[in-house]
Specification:
3-stranded antiparallel β-sheet, alpha/beta, Rossmann fold, 30% helix
Amino acid sequence: MPELTQLMDKDLIRRALMRISHEILEKNKGTSELCLVGIRTRGAVLAERVQAMVQEIEGVSVPVGILDITLYRDDLTSISAQPVVHETLIDFDIEGKKIVLIDDVFFTGRTIRAALNALNDFGRPAHIQLAVLIDRGHRELPIRADFVGKNIPTSLQQNVKVILQETDGDEDRVIIKENKNGG
């Protein structure tokens, strides 16, 4: 049975998201033209939390969208013969906007590449920045995060899981699973 280690609890997650929210506002000089897009599923929850924190800090509600990248994945045929596609909900114009793409765990970079391709179908933003709760390393593509909650060096035999109350029905936490059998 794999060993579990808790890396972050709900308070550490909240603090990391608050810091990321402040960094986003600082880098973008406020909320003008700022939009958040969360990658379904947990990235969408984190985007909504960042939106609430930005509103708390600045008193402004920035647009938030949800992006489903299923059909843009480069491993689509290996995950399922009938992949489940969920709705993308971006009900604002991204043309010329400052987009902050938000995800839970940043690993190889392939999910982010798929998200960038998916965003292309909605227009051409002024620029796209990336915010992630966890950066675990092992990049396969030349992509980096602009905002990181926590860098966690991992081995390829480990799995990092973000558990959120909204999606998992359990208290917020980040765990790392040690797979003794190599994966």
